[in-house]
Amino acid sequence: MKFSFNWLKDFVDIKIRPEKLAEFLNLRLAETLAEKHGKDYIFDISILPNRAHDALSHIGMAREISAIINSQFQIPNSKFQEDKKLKTKDYLDLKIENAKFCPRYIGRVIDNVKVGPSPKWLKGRIEAVGLRSINNIVDATNYVMLETGQPLHVFDFDKLEKNKGRVVIFVRNAKKGEKITTLDKEKYELDESVLMIADAQEPIAIAGIKGGKKAEIDVKTRRVVLEAANFDPVSIRRSSKKLNLGTDASLRFGQGISPELVKIAEERASALIQEIGGGKIFKGVKDFYPKKQAKVFVGLELDWLEKFLGVKIPESDVKKILKSLGFKLKPLNKNKILVEAPFWRVFDTKEPPDLAEEIGRVWGYEKIPETPARAALTLPKTNEFRDLENRIEKNLLGMGFSQVLTYSFHVFSADKLRELGENLADHLAVQNPTSPERTWLRDSLILNIVEAASRNLKNFDEVRLFEIGKIYKSNGEKTMLTGILASKKTSIQNNEFFELKGVASGLMESLGAEDVWYDDSSPTPYDSNASLWHPYRMAEIKIGPADKKSEKIREHKEEVGFLGEINPRILEKLDIKERVAVFDIDLEKLGKLIQKEFYFEPFSKYPAVRRDLSVLTPNNTRLEDVLYIIETAGGSLLFDLDVFDIYEGPELPEGKINFAFRLVFQSFEKTLTADEIDEKMKIIIKALEKNPEWEVRK
Dmax over Cα atoms in the chain, in whole Å? Predict the structure, then answer.
């Protein structure tokens, strides 16, 4: 909020330069910028929400300044003359139908006002802090809002519906479909959740947010109803968000204002309107205030305060600071004080630490000496699961993937989920969903991340996404890792499946998973909906020896996830034309199987030799089977093996597929000769050609 330096001086004696005052406010209250504005200085102070109850006003800020610089603070009296013959109660009545949302409402009638331009001093002040001057009557209410923090409103009395000369102001919830045109000529359709100010016929204002066009003050206005009210902050915030309408009034009401402030602001506004607009102020007000604001008392022990702040502040300073901020004190014993919060601080004063904060910041945090810790500091126990998540994030981001966070609900409606093959009988439903698409808790991350990829494919040629998140089933919840790869780049090979398999393998290796291999999928693949997957492009991700004859297979074989392409029928229902490959991994299971410690293995100082190999096989051949034979035949000298091409096309015999491999040979003991490499290649080729349907292409 912006504050005028000259305006603040109306309430507190400031003898320091504005720049110096800005430094004090930065240290003691909030971030502050000071800028010269003609003969004035304007402070832009970032008031935090916990102090919006009182500090969003010049009086509230002046009170803070008086405490910080130890200067005298005072509020001028609001003096005005009432007409003894005319009484507000004879012309105005109130009907508060929702006292929970409107705990206090004051109305007063003022007659014979003269509407015109505001005096130069008033116009200059409100415009200097960011408000637009409208006319003297409206400007007076805005001025009082900026001064006290209490929003007010004025209605043209003669434009309101009357019964025998009396106006009845209703404070009620809007009716469904009820409409209002606001002062800025915008039209809003309301519902029962929005609180309204209305006359006997229709709404005249959105309570606590914006006035209506019907009772607008103009040059013909002679009689006005001055409104000063208090509204429930939760109601105001919800209505402001629902209508997408934010104002200076809704900002203040939305944070909470004391109902005790209503009377003070009404009297100040009445005096100011009479001063600059003339008129007869009717005697008395209509004041609805059925339940007074509760007082707040907090016991403060001085010994505790010293321990809490880490410094002993003299008792006289403690009392002086609290009194300067408006707190009332009553000694209970030698070491304890009963502190009563002023009405403008009941929202943020509940416990002794709240008082300690006030004392510490005004006294000066910078005065608190640095002292070494008295207790031994120990490092917290490593969260191994979170460490695993961090390593996964780092690796996948390094591979060009972007991390996403989707809702904990399925992003589709019930009908769409059934269309996609989901059995909702197995899903958990929320009792009070915010929308039809937020009814069913996700039992898999797959559909949500596929939907996210679909939206991204509208703007990018290739999408690489991953998510780490919880899924929810009837028997509990668990954390999953799901990655997706989709590309608009079309080719005969369509290698999304194999490319993502390489990503999964690289990730597993970096995490310390040993003997990762890919097996045929079972009829009910890995806790996933089988209908989601492509029937021929899928594999279970397992950790255990690839040699199925191994005696250790029963001991070590463990399924941790699933890899595959999404079924084309599912993609068609989601309007996705590209092939989409996904891996889905149970992180909790994976975390138990990976190697917890890593050991450095020295590099070989002898050069590596690279050879390429191409194998033509039937198109139903598993890549894993070919890799296994090459690895077995290559022995210890085969240091690395990669697939760099998979080809199907018209140049090949019908029903055939070609795999191209890159083999790297290296020894830790010597430089390998060409003859040794050739001998190894012959052994590998011989092993491959034992299958009569396979052909090594030379």
Answer: 122
Amino acid at residue number 681 = M
Alpha carbon 554 to chain centroid, angstroms: 47
CA–centroid distance for 342 within its chain: 33
Residue with tokens 């059925």: 290
| Helix pair angle (302-309, 315-324), 10° resolution | 90
Q: Cα torsion for 474, 475, 478, 480, to the nearest 10°?
A: -60
Contact 450, 566 (CB under 8 A): yes
Q: Are 179 and 189 in contact (CB under 8 A)?
A: yes
Q: For 283-329, how does the pLDDT look when each residue is reduced to its tens digit (9 = 90+)?
A: 999 999 999 999 999 999 999 999 999 999 999 999 999 999 999 99
Cβ partners under 8 Å of residue 432, min gap 6: none
Residues 6+ apart with CB under 8 A from 248: 131, 142, 145, 151
**Which amino acid is it at 496?**
E
CA 649, CA 656: separation in Å to the nearest integer?
9
d(CA 698, CA 688): 13
| Strand order across the beta sheet in which 695-697 lies | 638-647, 656-665, 609-618, 695-697
- pLDDT tens-digit profile of 622-632? 887 888 899 88
Distances (CA, A) of 73 to 8, 16, 122, 264, 505: 10, 15, 22, 17, 71
CA distance 71 to 21: 12
Amino acid in the structure at residue 305: L
Look at residue 77 and give its three-state secondary structure.
coil
Phi, psi of 508 (to 5 degrees): -60, -40
Residue 545 has pLDDT above 60, yes or no: no
Query: Any residues with CB less than 8 A from the CB of 457 and at least 6 apart, and which?
Result: 463, 486, 488, 576, 578
Residue partners of 519: CB distance under 8 A and separation at least 6: 539, 540, 542, 559, 624
CA-nearest of 138, 167, 107, 152 to 277 is 138
Band the pLDDT of 554: cuts 50, 70, 90: very low
Q: Are strands 82-87 and 280-283 parallel, antiparallel or unpaired?
A: parallel
Residues 535 and 498 sit within 8 Å (Cβ to Cβ):
no
d(CA 485, CA 562): 14
Closest listed residue to residue 249, CA positions, set 364, 396, 148, 394: 148
Give φ, ψ of 480 to 5 degrees.
-120, 155
Which residues, at least 6 apart from 626, have a Cβ–Cβ distance to it below 8 Å? 615, 617, 659, 661, 688, 694
CA distance 47 to 122: 24
Going by C-alpha positions, the residue among 260, 296, 284 that lies closest to residue 104 is: 260
Phi, psi dihedrals of residue 376, rounded to the nearest 5°: -70, 135
Dihedral pair phi/psi, residue 432, rounded to 5°: -125, 70
pLDDT the model gives residue 555 = 45
Q: Which two tokens stand for residue 538?
A: 């899928």
Distance CA 612, CA 662 (A): 5
The upper half-sphere exposure of residue 480, i.e. CA atoms within 13 Å in the direction of its Cβ, equals: 27
Write down the pTM of the prediction: 0.62
Return d(Cα 99, Cα 235) in angstroms, integer: 12
Hey, what amino acid is at 19?
A: E
Give the pair of three-digit tokens for residue 501. 């398999």
Phi, psi for 158 (deg, rounded to 5): -75, -15
341 touches 325 (CB < 8 A)? no
- The answer to whether 149 touches 57, Cβ cutoff 8 Å, is yes
40 has which bridge partners? 37
Determine contact, residues 28/68, Cβ cutoff 8 Å. yes
Taking the C-alpha atoms of residue 101 and residue 235, their distance in angstroms, rounded to an integer, is: 7
Contacts of 93 (CB under 8 A, 6+ apart): 166, 167, 168, 169, 286
What string of H, E and C letters represents the secondary structure of 601-636? Answer: CCCCCCCCEEEEEEEEEECCCCHHHHHHHHHHHHHH
